[in-house]
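haha ok so turns out i had the wrong file open the whole time. this is the CORRECT one, sorry everyone. sequence first:
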Amino acid sequence: MISGSVGKTSTKDAVAAVLSARFYIRASEKSFNSEFGVPFTILGVGNPWSDSLAWLRIVKSALALLLLPNHYPALLVLEIGADRPGDLARILRIATPDAVVITRLPEIPVHVEAYASPEHVREEEFSPAYALNAGAPLIVPSDDPWALENAKRVSARVITYGGTVDAFVRISDIGFYEVDGKVVGMHAMVHMNDEKGTIVVKGSVGRTQLLPVVAALATAHAFQIPLNEALKTLESYEPPPGRGRIFAGKNDSIIIDDSYNASPAAVEEALATLKTFPRATPASPTGGRPSFAEATKGRRIAVLGDMLELGRYSVLEHERIAMLVGESADVIVTVGIRARAFTAASKNLEVLLFNCSRTAALGLSDYVRPGDVVLIKGSQSIRTERIVEALLADPSDASRLARQEKKWKQKV
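then structure:
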């Protein structure tokens, strides 16, 4: 089971990829992590939405699974998530974990508005660990003090991963992965016992895109898969849509598509990525190598939508992130009413304000220019993938964005 506040789907995909080399597995489709989504994965069916015939087919599949011989997976890789108190308790009545991977549990987690306190959210997201048998693998981030402290309360076999020196699976030398002078992903060294190797994650940028792979390597160790074999298997892994994905943008710009969702911790990491992203080098209008003045034209543009489901922490967290925006971007573009708080520390920044993603998409289409690096991030309901789609140099790349299913496209 994969639980936590940040990076669950990416971690689920990476864990599924590494385990599939040895086992017949089935993993949660996309982000099917609710008390409805988990049974869909167990049954091996898609989301029926409101289609009554599709629901009938699900019932038939369930009966066939119970009554007829079948070739069922050896392992299920289940992503589980909580929107309200008690969500994970209901899921744990459906499925009991044999191994648990915990992703980051930040100080102010997503969905906190539905809970009495942030600690109650963290406690629920950590709760699958309490269902483990003694000696079963519990894989936790080494740089999350809360997760480490609570891991002491269980009898599971704790395996740590992350960037701290004491992590069992440790990464170091983190940097952007470049090909022909263009950033195409991230790379890092990985260390485990006396072994080491290189991780390359293609198609996405940010330190957070490496952590799911490191968690997957820790899981591989728990299932006795050697490091070199696990690294080989993960060479083809790519993060899911909307998680730091890189695209060519209009007018020779670069898009960092982080539009899937936005919690304070995730926005903080995304801004750190934007801050350190190499300045793009636009083509010289006179041909050949651009001059220094031409090469430094590119702006870092942060397009940020509202962070939702924060309840009483909303104002404080939007204002806190505002201080980071001022350190990371040259231009701040806000989408939504709450996001306007991001401009609190924008004295030296150019500011553009939009009420929704549709108007932002129209307003930014002709705004970007050669060399600009554009980070796009917002909570799911803000639908910032619409802005990404409007800024794509190649419209066919839209199929690789988040929320492109027909049901999503029909929503306002």
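The mean pLDDT is 92.
again sry for the mixup
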